[in-house]
Amino acid sequence: MTKVSLVGAGPGDPDLLTIKALKVLKQADVVLFDDLVSEEVLDAIGPGPTLISVGKRAGRPSWAQGDINDLMVRLVREGRAVARLKSGDPSIFGRSGEEISALAAVGIEVSVVPGITAASAMAAGLQVSLTHRACAQSVRFVTAHGANGQLPAHLDWAGLANDETTLIVYMGGRMGGEFASRLIAHGRSGQTPVVVVKNVSRDSQEVVAGRLAELDQLLALCRAEGPVTIAIGEVFMGHALSGSVGSQETLEGRAARL
Q1: 34 noted as active-site residue
Q2: Are residues 58 and 132 in the same domain?
């Protein structure tokens, strides 16, 4: 039976599509794409496949996950080659596990084509090492959007509050302020550097920087529509201080002594 390919679209810049992703998309009969996939990425696919939007956005009319699963099954049973195009990387907050399970349950083979996740593209654009050895011993990806639209119920706040951990917060536009308050309540300094990036890698990208205690205000400064990525940690000190060269040199000096 024809299989389904779950494909990572990357954060929006079509040049960040992998060669394999573009090859799979061009060979598909049908491409089911998420709402956050950029128009530029869709344009890069070119003529041939039928493009169907199956977007899911909070507060807007959306496809239910079960309906998306049913559509994929129906298309495969009609003999179509299906590509399920997801923003970023399918395996990072892309609900790929649910779709893989649903397809496997009816005997449909699935392949996954990874994509560049927003955290990687953001770090590259800001020229920041997420694991700079002077101040970050780990990096954690976390979502601020739980199943009920609020913060997830079981976040590891003690671990997230570790000041040697870089945090990348996905889907934090609505709950970013509450996330910051909880993080501070669990011991993370309100002076921790923060960068908010809207529309990572796209022409409409917006970047604002400051401190954790003012995250709500920073989010309000972003005017464009689009996905929000929040980056928290000492590795962003240079951006929090308006790109001060001195602060970056301090990081390098600290690294040299380790």
Answers
A1: yes
A2: no
